[in-house]
Specification:
Blueprint: E1 3-6, E2 9-12, E3 27-29, H1 34-43, E4 48-53, E5 56-62, H2 63-71, H3 75-79, E6 94-96, H4 101-109, E7 120-123, E8 129-133, H5 135-162, H6 167-186, E9 191-195, E10 200-204, H7 206-211, E11 222-223, H8 230-245, E12 253-261, E13 265-276, E14 281-288, H9 290-339, H10 343-371, E15 379-382, H11 383-393, H12 395-401, E16 404-408, E17 415-418, H13 420-437, E18 445-453, E19 456-463, H14 493-503, E20 507-513, E21 517-525, H15 545-549, E22 559-563, H16 567-581, E23 584-588, H17 591-600, E24 605-609, H18 617-627, H19 629-632, E25 635-639, H20 645-654, E26 658-660, H21 665-679
């Protein structure tokens, strides 16, 4: 039996006492309440703890599961007083003290899925609890065994040169070592792929075949990049070529890609890639993290809800500030009209009303962006614009705290591939934490900067707050860890930030000096992808009401049908099309009445709301495609819907132009002009 090198010298595997591998011996009684178990986790830095009845082990509970139960809105009320043994881990691994280490490693490290990461409970022959052995400890011992096998193989190779008389014996032992390596290779909990820089898998283990739903023994290499969607495929191939050009870097690189598997559909995988200099190949370890990401996304949504709750007062204040001048100047305008005041004075009132309304619309759009579900598609976006939007979104909170915010943004774009809504949530969380930190400080100053370093975009958020205690720094990204009161925070904000940043292949770290302040640093890989328009790119169309009014001879008197159940909307559109374009305009309040008018008369254009009683805009559009196909090309949707994912996908699939409420008159005329120029007269 081989011996394994340890800090105390050479120890034979059969001599290893499993008790020496125990990480901790803490346990709680089965009758303890779930609330007390939750409090125990808050005061102990362990992920798992044994549950005993007397001294006999009855199971294990985990920090993550208890936190999930009690972190829900009514979690404490529903589960807090239930005994801990009602929430034991399923299929926990329990081993006896006299079990051989090799068998322990085989049982623990051959587990599938999330259970692979669970710690192991150690008991004696009477099933009395002896302690918890972490899976990290078992992995280290497995690594020691692998290292020993490597060293043994090297010794055999050297012996081959030293003594030809031992050739047969050395070759035989070498084959045995290779056999052991193959066993470890085939029984790895992760999919292992050895591939070239084109993504062609030249060698893979059985776990890889199972993960990718490949038939065992399939002939010939297959291209892993073919399973990755077009949006991410170039990044994947670029990653492989980077390994080839930077062979000196030995540290594995972690990345995430969405694979489209013929038998399983879209699945998200975590890749750990490194370069094998001896064979000129890229070694990739694959782990299916689809379910893990689903849970993380739910956590992100939960934190979003908490974030919106904390901001609702400021948002209401800002919108009310914008509504007040709309109401006030409207009344002034009516009064001045009755008095026959000059047009220039009335125009100033109109401008104030319009500007206040557009500012209200901007706040609502930002709020909707933050509240929408987590999207799966990443796109190039400018981090500078996201930071500016967050500053604008939180300006009431900043002003209320009497804090000074210093912005240090580069002149050029800071482009990353990301979901802008998720990144905005990260920036909001960091900025709100900074505002909380300086709340009781004499100097209330925040600094936000964006820079570039080693092809990475670096965002820094610094404050002059109270700082973080050194003993708390290792825990601040843990779920439910917080130094705030229950009213101020749930302890999920930074945990969610870490999850979002990791999903974007980024990193987040913190430096803090007690009573001097903290600085959070977030890094994202910079993207040079110019094929996709930047998120939030501005419309460069310069057609305005004045441009159109200068060309009345180019417009004949066209007939327009407006379909909307809001009379204010149809009246406004009718007035502007009549006054600016000399159109003949009719109004109806639902799709059925629109169909009736379309059967009775000819129209050149149709402008319709989406959601209406009896027959909605989608139904009207389908009727036009079937009965008036030429007029369907002169159809425009207007909608005040919040923009759910299903609605947006349906609108995009139809291909008709969409104008979202509220909109300015210039925007309406611009879209109308585009529709007119694109299709000619219907």
């Amino acid at each position: 039996m081989p011996a394994v090198e340890s800090s105390s010298g050479s120890v034979a595997v059969e001599d290893v006492d499993l008790v020496s591998l125990v990480e901790h011996r803490e346990c709680i009684q089965a009758t303890e309440t779930t609330e007390n178990a939750y409090k125990w986790f808050q005061t102990h830095n362990h992920e798992y703890v044994g549950v005993v009845s007397g001294t006999r082990l009855v199971g294990m509970i985990s920090r993550g599961h208890i936190g999930f139960l009690l972190g829900a809105r009514f979690g404490f009320a529903l589960y807090g007083q239930q005994p801990a043994d009602q929430h034991l881990m399923k299929n926990h691994l329990q081993i006896a003290r006299d079990t051989p280490l090799l068998k322990v490693l085989e049982e623990a490290l051959s587990r599938k899925g999330d259970s692979f990461y669970d710690d192991v409970a150690l008991v004696d022959s009477q099933e009395s609890f002896l302690g918890i052995i972490s899976v990290q400890t078992l992995v280290r011992w497995q690594s020691k065994l692998i290292l020993q096998k490597s060293q043994l193989a090297e010794q055999h190779r050297q012996a081959l040169h030293e003594n030809n008389s031992q050739l047969f014996r050395s070759l035989n032992e070498l084959r045995q070592s290779q056999g052991r390596f193959e066993i470890l290779f085939e029984n790895s909990a992760l999919g292992v792929a050895l591939m070239n820089t084109r993504g062609e898998v030249e060698t893979g283990n059985r776990r890889l075949e199972a993960l990718l739903d490949i038939q065992p023994g399939a002939s010939g290499p297959f291209n892993l990049s073919a399973l990755i969607g077009p949006a991410e495929r170039d990044n994947f191939l670029h990653l492989l070529t980077e390994h080839e050009s930077n062979t000196s870097g030995s540290n594995p690189r972690g990345s995430e890609f969405l694979l489209h598997l013929p038998g399983r559909g879209p699945r998200r995988f975590k890749f750990f890639t490194s370069w094998i200099r001896e064979t000129g190949q890229v070694c990739a370890l694959l782990d299916d993290i689809t379910e893990q990401r689903v849970l993380e996304h739910r956590l992100i949504q939960k934190e979003k809800s908490a974030l919106l709750d904390s901001l609702v007062g400021g948002i209401a204040h800002e919108i009310n500030n914008k509504l007040a001048p709309i109401i006030g100047f409207s009344e002034l305008l009516l009064a001045q009209l009755e008095l026959g005041q000059p047009a220039d004075k009335l125009a100033r009132y109109c401008t104030m009303i319009r500007d206040s309304a557009m500012e209200s619309a901007k706040i609502i759009r930002q709020l909707l962006q933050l509240s929408r579900p987590v999207s799966a598609e990443l796109s190039p976006c400018d981090l500078r614009e996201i930071v500016k939007e967050v500053i604008s979104f939180l300006k009431f909170r900043i002003r209320e705290s009497r804090s000074e915010v210093l912005l240090e943004l580069p002149d050029h774009e800071a482009v990353i591939r990301a979901d802008p809504t998720q990144i905005k949530q990260v920036v909001i969380n960091l900025l709100l934490n900074a505002l909380d930190a300086v709340e009781k400080q004499a100097q209330k100053q925040l600094r936000m900067s964006i820079s570039e370093r080693d092809n990475k975009i670096v965002l820094k958020v610094a404050d002059t707050g109270h700082g973080i205690k050194p003993e708390h720094l290792p825990q601040i990204f843990d779920p439910f860890f917080t130094t705030k009161s229950v009213e101020q925070g749930s302890g999920l904000g930074l945990s969610v930030c870490l999850s979002i940043v990791k999903q974007h292949s980024g990193e987040i770290s913190v430096k803090s000096v007690l009573n001097s302040g903290s600085e959070f640093e977030v890094t994202f890989p910079r993207t040079f992808d110019a094929a996709v328009p930047l998120h939030g790119a501005k419309d460069e169309t310069t057609i305005t009401r004045r441009n159109m009014a200068e060309k009345p001879t180019e417009m004949h008197r066209r007939r327009v049908l407006i379909v909307d159940d809001e009379e204010f909307i149809t009246s406004m559109i009718q007035e502007v099309l009549r006054n600016d374009l000399n159109c003949s305009v009719e109004r109806v309040n639902n799709g059925l009445r629109a169909v009736t008018r379309l059967q009775q008369a000819d129209f050149d254009f149709v402008i319709s709301d989406v959601r209406m009683p009896e027959l909605d805009g989608f139904g009207l559009y389908e009727w036009l495609k079937e009965h008036r196909p030429r007029l369907a090309r002169h159809f425009m949707f207007i909608t005040g819907d919040a923009g759910s994912q299903d609605l947006n996908q349906k609108l995009e699939s139809l291909g008709a132009p969409v104008l979202r409420k509220p909109f300015s008159l210039d925007m309406l005329l611009r879209e109308y002009q585009k529709l007119s120029v694109a299709g000619g007269k219907a």
